Amino acid sequence: MNEKELLKKAIAASISAGAEIMDVYNQDFDVDFKADKSPLTLADRRAHETICRSLHETGFPVLSEEGKDIPYETRKNWEKYWLVDPLDGTKEFVKRNGEFTVNIALVVGGKPEMGVIYVPVSRLLYFASPSAGAFKTSVPAENIQIDRILAGASPLPLKSSPEKLTIVGSRSHMSPETNDFIDNLRKTTPEIEFISIGSSLKLCLVAEGKAHVYPRFGPTMEWDTAAGQAIVEKSGGVVMKTDGIDPVRYNKPDLLNPWFIASRPY
Questions:
Q1: Candidate from 22-26, 120-124, 205-209 with smallest mean pLDDT
Q2: Max Cα separation, the chain?
Q3: Is residue 230 a contact partner of residue 114, using CB atoms and an 8 Å limit?
């Protein structure tokens, strides 16, 4: 498959997963808990199965949060693979606030080169690929045609950008270090706007230009950020480790991300 065909495959998989998620979202559902106390629902599992079934047709391996027990001895030989969070923001899903996403990234040589983020409740779609750039669009409820979705997408960042320095942070995972980072910024930039939102939507806001900085001084996993990083980078932003030197990289022995700061010019 060429780049456009891979992108279309990932977009279609994200939309199909979103439909599975909404089917569970619109009924009563049970919540289980993993060993790390994070929630797990039928929606996570159904989205995982749908995405994996579709992406395996591309011939590239898939590493998904709900199928993550693949040893590094196997993964280290993957030059190109799909990195997936079938339902990012399960806590937000359980709260029914709509702030959850489907994340699909194509990682090449440790770098996320393609990213798709779909927001099932609002039907918003963010995507990026190396030759096309980054885009945002909405997905129709019926007669979904991927070519028409691609043709109607708006390039990122959007033209309008907030005048105040705008920081986006987690709705469920703020930390003292994040608060300290914001307090230090206030010393030189008193007029700061803060947005609190769940899941990979924080990275989407940076890609759009609606937020300038997303500091993450807390735990995230590789599947939480890869798709968003691709979209941020293809929109002209960066996702850097807190040393300010190196971008966040993928397919490490330990799938836990370092602390990072996603940003775009202000």
A1: 22-26
A2: 52
A3: yes
